[in-house]
Amino acid sequence: MRRSVFTSLLIGSLTLCSLSIAEAQTTKLPASAHTPNGLELSSGTLTIRVDALRPDVLRVRVFPAGHPAEDASWAVLPAARNARVAVTPEVNGFSTPALRVTVSPNLQLKVTDLAGNPLQNDALPVAWSSDGFKVTKAKTDDDHYFGLGDKPGPLDRAGEAFVMWNTDNFGWQESTDPIYKSIPFLIQMRSGRALGVLFDNTFRTFFDFGRERTDRMTFSAPGGPLDYYLLYGPEPKQVLNEYAWLTGPTPLPPLWTLGYQQSRYTYYPQTQVEEIAARLRADKIPADAIYLDIDYQYKNRPFTVDTEAYPDFKGMIRKLTAQHLHTVLITDLHIANLPNQGYAPYDSGSAGNHFVKEKGQNYVGPVWPGPSVFPDFTRQQTRAWWGTLYKEFVQDGVSGFWNDMNEPAVFRYPTKTMPDDVEHRIDEPGFVKRTAMHPEIHNFYGMENSRATWDGLLALKPNERPFVLTRASYAGGQRYAATWTGDNLATWNHLRQTTPQILNLGLSGFAMTGADVGGFGGSPSPDLLTKWIMLAAFQPIDRNHAAKGTRTHEVWVDGPEQEAIRKRYIEERYQLLPYLYTTAEQTSRDGVPIVRPLFVEYPHATSDGHPLDLDADGEFFFGPSILVAASPLPDDVAPYELHLPSGIWYDYWTGAKLDRRGPATARDLEIRDTAPALQPVMLHPGLGDLPVYVRAGAIVPMQPLVQSTDEIPNGPLTLRVFAPAAGESCGGDLYTDDGSSYDFRNGAYLRLHITCSIDASGALTVSIPQREGNFKPWWSTLRIEAVGFVPARSQATVEGRTTALEKTKLGWAATVADTGKAQTVILQ
Predict the structure, then answer these.
(1) Which residue segment(s) compose the domain that 803 sits in?
(2) Domain end call among 666, 690, 714
(3) Residue 750's closest CA among 819, 681, 651, 661?
(4) What does the alpha-carbon distance between residue 780 and residue 436 come to, in Å, rounded to a whole number?
(5) Please, which residues have CB within 8 angstroms of residue 606's CB and are 6 or more apart in sequence?
(6) Which of 214, 237, 601, 681 lies deepest, with the highest CB count within 10 Å?
(7) Is 347 a catalytic residue?
(8) How far apart are CA 77 and CA 450, in angstroms?
């Protein structure tokens, strides 16, 4: 009886609560709440301000009434943060040409599209106390969440909870949290509609995607501003475009960084570095970079060289350069605390008062060199000083730099970082000049380290694209550095984790990413290393790296059979460099990552709107057209099912056609349920096989094999055309430039958008427009290779001239001169 009374009282109170919320949301807001670009409304002790930066981008701020937070951001670009569009006032809020916003008198926010589809709504008013604040959003069973950087675990964050706190976490596992980066950006997919959320708060922040309550999504922080952005699609690509507009895209990298990279902790001494370089060239394994980890330094002190182990360091760099191998050096941010000992980085840093403080004195913490001090990268003058430290290495011919240990990692347990009472002296345009404690700075400290390196390299060589690799970062850090997934392990599970980590990093703005190939910690079996090298050939950064004390990871270590497989995949990557570089250039403009989930290209691939990736673990797009279908369990010997979006696909290796047009994506459930089902395709690849597919209608540019990106390819540029169905669209892009400078900004580039079609007679027409830009490429002929095309006459017509078609392994080809002018090639 007591239970039923309690239940009745509970139901009654919930009903009253629901009525009061519904009533609040239909109460007319005062006219004073409306602003030209949104609204501002106070209730009790809090104020909410919502501004439309664009029709599809909103900024939401909540703060104690009369006390707005400082309007500044380390993540969001000033031009985007200060952008505004006019809105249309409505009774309970406002609308834009894309969104409708309502705010209740108790400050609960609701956002829909113009058709009334709910995109996001507060389940509770903002909770604010002396312990921080918490935002609670309604979550449905149809909500899926992606992003947050390189957090381990599944691609979809639904049902999980995470903390943002950059942490040096060697040997992390699938359930480990936090690790190296804090990127508080996510993309919510609901019934095929995408909404991005950037929570711009640098403190230790928390996200819960339904772990505590399945009907709630929350984000919270113990301090700092309640400042977040909503980015509406409805397509995922549009959200990615908006995020790039908000925080900046990944810049166009130097071409050599897309080549194969060989690394170890550490190639020591100098003779071993030279032996590795010689073996790469002797075995004709294409490669573009060799990394040196901390042992090249004298007593692990940054910006020094151990001249006993590397007696001719400058000569070694010159020799590697002559072999067309770029050198990348690690330069950790901790500076050995060595006053009056002639250590120039300490002396110049101390003279400029560039180190963070604790109780007014330089904070000193133990890292690789022993007791160390740490630059205060929140000061613009400190970042400028840091950049000058690279001058001698750059003069020596070093091509890139690796900022590690920048969470910041300190050998101080259990926190593994600086104490909370470390002081940072913010001195940055757009910010109030003040002292801030470490909990506010921690999560973007590594980003500002990479920014200082990037800016320093640009100051030293203003027309050369820098390459910086960082372990820790924050939202917007993609502007300054590429990244990797940190200290992984040589296990099959970490190979499996590589794909969701790189995909979520790409969705979080970081397009130039990779994982330590073979696993950093531990020694991979021969088969594991081979499978890892194969997969990495289709990732943005292909860096083979291993820890001290592990067995070597180089391509040749397990004998000729394994080496041949590994080499073949690296060679395939080099032949695909025109496609990869074109994709990287597109990324630098639109923010769509190089490696992307299936739902980015096919957001409506399933009948109920759920992302296809949830059925296709291990699959991803490499650029816009190539789908890699790795095993969801790479060490499992059983066959696995291939999940392709509806359409025609071609096997990348054989040219075999797969017609997957079927009922799986039908919107009409009756049609879908009564149509005959497509039979599943089961894959059972061998050791040297990685299933890869290309969608019909794609044009993939490829080049002859080279041993490095410095080498000029010998032969024609291939345009591999994967034939569409009659009447279907067909096209592809090509971009090239000198691969290293910023001359492309002044027109020194080449850009083409090639199209094709198949007519009723079965003839394939390829239309090549006049080149855009004034860059002269390395090729003078084009090889049009058609896959999935059956000619009737085995001939090609080029501007009225007819030539015979060549039979190839994958199809039929014609070679034509390329003068840069528009031309049409007809295969028939």
Answers:
(1) 699-827
(2) 690
(3) 819
(4) 59
(5) 612, 615, 664, 665
(6) 601
(7) no
(8) 17
Residue linked to tokens 């992302």: 611
487 assigned to active site: yes
Q: How many domains does the chain have?
A: 3
Torsion of CA 641, 566, 504, 595, to 10 degrees: -90
Contact between 307 and 313 under an 8 Å Cβ cutoff? The reply is: yes
Give alpha helix (H) positions in 379-510: 380-388, 391-396, 438-460, 492-507
The 10s digit of each residue's pLDDT in 607-662 is: 999 999 999 999 999 999 999 999 999 999 999 999 999 999 999 999 999 999 97
Q: Are 418 and 377 in contact (CB under 8 A)?
A: no
Tokens of 384: 């400028």
Say which of 208, 407, 585, 785 is annotated catalytic: 407
Residues 116 and 241 in one domain: yes
Residue whose pair of structure tokens reads 């609960």 in the numeric block:
108
As beta bridge partners, residue 146 has 187
Which residues in the chain show pLDDT less than 70?
1-27, 663-677
Nearest CA-CA partner of 726 in 697, 758, 698: 758
Helix or strand (DSSP H, E) at 21: helix 2-25
Six-digit token string for 149: 């950087």
Q: Is 407 a catalytic residue?
A: yes
Answer whether residue 561 is part of any domain. Answer: no
Give the per-residue pLDDT at 667: 41
Specify the CATH number for the domain of residue 771: 2.60.40.1180
The verdict on whether omega for the bond into residue 485 sits within 30 degrees of 0, i.e. cis, is: no
Same domain, 229 and 89: yes
746 and 469 Cβ atoms separated by less than 8 Å: no
CB 705 within 8 A of CB 579: no
Q: In the structure encoding, which two tokens stand for residue 407, read together?
A: 């969470």
Between helix 438-460 and helix 380-388 the angle, nearest 10°, is: 50
Say which of 288, 404, 601, 785 is annotated catalytic.
404
Please tell me the number of Cα atoms within 13 Å of 817 on its side-chain side. Answer: 5
> Amino acid identity, residue 397?
G
* pTM for the whole structure: 0.95
Provide CB contacts within 8 A for 302, sequence distance 6+. 331, 332, 333, 334, 335, 336, 345, 369, 389
What integer pLDDT is reported at residue 679 of this predicted model?
A: 87
The span from the CA of 664 to the CA of 747, in Å, is: 46
Q: Is the dihedral of CA 688, 788, 596, 703 positive or negative?
A: positive
Question: Across-strand partners of 101?
Answer: 94, 111
Residues 742 and 632 both lie in one domain: no
**CATH (domain of 76):** 2.60.40.1760
Among 56, 168, 332, 487, the active-site one is 487
Task: Please tell me the predicted confidence (pLDDT) of residue 27.
Answer: 61
List % helix, strand, coil for the chain (3-state, nearest 5).
Answer: 25, 30, 45
